Write a sequence for this structure.
């Protein structure tokens, strides 16, 4: 899948705007609704996005200052997302929404002004600006999904599903290494039906290990919002099944989704 950076940025804008539309008009009580992520409210989901949008802008504009911030967070333990959520839990909902909108606007401006292949610091290894944009899209989709679940509404169709699915496939080796497992050399074929009547595929057509189903189900799995057995995905072969048990499209501590539980 070749990089179409303007399209990637448009996908991020689209997913961001859909979330902002759903946040508009929420009551204070709704902001405190529990989401599927244990211990996290809608407010926590939004402060998480805002904080790491600010972190991404800092990483691009002042790498040294970002590294100081990142090292301080990591030194306190890999549970820093939970600590950040707790720190901002007392913030008023309108301030949280304003923070997110402002942080996301600045992030999009910064991403638009950068060369997509240029490198930037991040938690763990450096990455390209385009990779960070994809990661912010994935994070937005995943945390927005938790918000939609809490509100009892359908996740709006995302034009960024292919980019997130591609990230999920691309992190095959990363997921195994993160869990200290040997990376299989056996190929896996992934075939996904899109909401736009297209089929997206990765891997050799004749692979014995296969994952087939909808793009939405696959993205739910690689963002650990659902265990693959809770979706309509068809999984053939032990390599494919073992991968989906640990699939993790986001950086941070190794985690795995057990049925009926959600990880941040």
């Amino acid at each position: 899948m070749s990089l179409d950076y303007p399209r990637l940025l448009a996908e991020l804008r689209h997913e961001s705007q859909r979330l902002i539309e759903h946040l508009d008009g929420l009551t204070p009580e709704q902001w405190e609704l529990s989401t599927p992520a244990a211990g996290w409210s809608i407010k926590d989901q939004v402060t998480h996005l805002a904080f790491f949008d600010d972190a991404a802008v800092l990483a691009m504009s002042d790498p040294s200052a970002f590294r100081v911030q990142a090292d301080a967070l990591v030194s306190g333990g890999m549970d820093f997302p939970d600590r950040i959520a707790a720190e901002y839990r007392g913030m008023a909902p309108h301030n949280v929404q304003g923070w997110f909108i402002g942080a996301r606007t600045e992030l999009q401006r910064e991403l638009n002004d950068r060369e997509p292949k240029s490198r930037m610091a991040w938690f763990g290894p450096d990455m390209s600006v385009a990779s960070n944009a994809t990661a912010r899209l994935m994070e937005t989709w995943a945390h927005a999904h938790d918000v939609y679940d809490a509100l009892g509404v359908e996740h709006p169709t995302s034009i960024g599903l292919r980019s997130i699915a591609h990230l999920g496939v691309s992190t095959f080796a990363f997921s195994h290494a993160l869990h200290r497992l040997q990376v299989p050399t056996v190929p896996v074929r992934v075939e996904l039906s899109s909401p736009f009547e297209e089929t997206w595929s990765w891997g050799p057509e004749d692979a014995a290990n296969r994952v087939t189903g909808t793009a939405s189900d696959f993205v739910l799995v690689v963002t650990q919002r659902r265990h693959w057995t809770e979706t309509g995905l068809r999984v053939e072969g032990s390599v494919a099944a073992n991968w989906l048990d640990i699939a993790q499209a986001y950086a941070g501590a190794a985690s795995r989704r057990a049925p009926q539980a959600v990880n941040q």
